[in-house]
């Protein structure tokens, strides 16, 4: 007897969660593993946000809310888009879900018909292709090499769009590459999209506050206002406010799409936790100094990792422009032998070698659609990162 529907046959579990599980399994056996697999800030959620949650719970905000989110949270999100991104949305254009992941899932469920294609510039966030497949669409991957800054170019986009293209996914700063698109990069992509009116754009801007070297964030919505009626801006509090466990994401887009997403939500999870929504209002409307402090810490860690990795013979790393990952090139290790005589055939073998020999958990580039690389998360303390780099160095030095 088969318990599982056929639509699950091609869907893989999250690679970053799998890396983390492998690290935990080794730890359970007493092995001292540094887990750089999962991407979540190691800071506590700022105090005033936690206080707002306490207050909401004590004040009786403990009931189901509107499926799209409370009036307060949708106003707070509209205010955030106005203030931080120069975008005008009303509460009707906004929907809240259990994380940006659920937002993306709902958007795809609301729109994909069998045979629809979603263009995914690689390296991409691991969940994008799996969600597309799960919901009956076809992921169409465009490899965006390091030589173009891991960014999608207008030429590649133009070549890849077909009459079946339903979505283009953009993610900036990008997970895993940290790539950021400038206003002119986005306008050039927008010019291509203007010629293909069937294509919707999903701009995942969840790392917008984690930007380095003085860069300013430009939302896709700001760069291409002419595409507003086919753009869904996705964001959330997980990364900016160290709130991964609170599970709040949000999106702004065309009202009919947002309404369909909220209908799906009303029939699946009813609403996001009322207390987490109240906490998010405090996050968005309250003081932003912790966000700035987190950003600074992430930049210092980025610098430490870039310096350390670039000194390792056999690895390469372009400085990430944002987010909290390092996407490390390992082309020159491929085909070489470990001290145990195992040939490193691909980046999955490299990540496996690093886990077993360096006792550092990372995620192989194959999970992100662009090889040979492996990703480490830099959302951990500087001492731990320095120790991880020294272990990686020692392990790489032993490859023959
Ligand atoms: C690009 C990207 N989008 C979305 C998410 C998910 O965010 P959330 O915690 O809001 O579901 C992640 C988390 O790793 C991510 O890297």
From TrEMBL:
Originating organism: Mesorhizobium tamadayense
Pfam families per the UniProt record, alphabetical: Aminotran_1_2 (PF00155)
Residues passing through the membrane, by range: none
PANTHER family xref list: ASPARTATE AMINOTRANSFERASE (PTHR46383)
Keywords: Aminotransferase, Pyridoxal phosphate, Transferase
Family: Belongs to the class-I pyridoxal-phosphate-dependent aminotransferase family.
EC number: 2.6.1.-
Name of this protein: Aminotransferase
Gene Ontology biological-process annotations: amino acid metabolic process
Domain annotation Aminotransferase class I/classII large: ranges: 32-392
Cofactor(s), names only, from the UniProt record: pyridoxal 5'-phosphate
GO MF: L-aspartate:2-oxoglutarate aminotransferase activity; pyridoxal phosphate binding
Subunit structure, interactors included: Homodimer.
Catalytic activity: L-aspartate + 2-oxoglutarate = oxaloacetate + L-glutamate
Xref: InterPro entries: Aminotransferase_I/II_large, AspAT/PAT-like, NHTrfase_class1_PyrdxlP-BS, PyrdxlP-dep_Trfase, PyrdxlP-dep_Trfase_major, PyrdxlP-dep_Trfase_small
């Amino acid at each position: 007897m088969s318990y599982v529907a056929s639509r699950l046959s091609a869907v893989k579990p999250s690679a970053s969660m799998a890396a983390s599980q492998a690290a935990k399994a080794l730890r359970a056996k007493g092995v001292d593993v540094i887990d750089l697999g999962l991407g979540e800030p190691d800071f506590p959620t700022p105090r005033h946000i936690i206080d707002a949650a306490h207050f909401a719970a004590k004040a009786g905000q403990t009931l189901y809310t509107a499926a799209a989110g409370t009036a307060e949270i949708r106003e707070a999100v509209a205010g955030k888009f106005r203030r931080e991104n120069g975008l005008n949305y009303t509460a009707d254009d906004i929907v809240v879900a259990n994380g940006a992941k659920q937002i993306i899932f709902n958007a795809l469920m609301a729109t994909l018909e069998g045979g629809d294609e979603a263009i995914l510039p690689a390296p991409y966030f691991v969940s994008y292709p799996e969600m597309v497949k799960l919901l009956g669409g076809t992921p169409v991957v465009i490899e965006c090499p390091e030589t173009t800054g891991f960014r999608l170019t207008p030429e590649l986009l133009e070549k890849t769009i077909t009459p079946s293209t339903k979505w283009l996914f953009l993610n900036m700063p990008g997970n895993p590459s940290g790539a950021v698109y400038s206003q002119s990069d986005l306008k050039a992509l927008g010019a291509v999209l203007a010629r293909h009116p069937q294509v919707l754009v999903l701009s995942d801007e969840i790392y917008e506050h984690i930007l380095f070297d003085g860069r300013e964030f430009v939302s896709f919505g700001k760069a291409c206002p002419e595409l507003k009626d086919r753009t869904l801006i996705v964001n959330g509090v997980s990364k900016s406010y160290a709130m991964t466990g609170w599970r709040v994401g949000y999106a702004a887009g065309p009202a009919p799409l947002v309404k369909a997403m909220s209908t799906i939500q009303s029939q699946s999870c009813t609403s996001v936790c009322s207390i987490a929504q109240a906490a998010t209002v405090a996050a968005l409307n309250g003081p932003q100094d912790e966000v700035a402090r987190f950003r600074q810490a992430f930049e210092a860690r980025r610098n430490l990792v870039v310096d350390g990795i670039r000194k390792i013979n056999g690895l390469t790393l372009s400085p990430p422009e944002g987010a909290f990952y390092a996407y490390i090139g390992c082309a020159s290790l491929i085909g070489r032998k470990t001290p145990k005589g195992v040939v490193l055939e691909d980046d999955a073998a490299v990540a496996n070698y690093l886990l077993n020999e360096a006792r550092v958990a990372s995620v192989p580039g194959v999970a992100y659609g662009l090889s040979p690389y492996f990703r480490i998360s830099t959302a951990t303390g500087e001492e731990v990162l320095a120790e991880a780099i020294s272990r990686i160095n020692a392990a790489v030095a032993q490859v023959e």
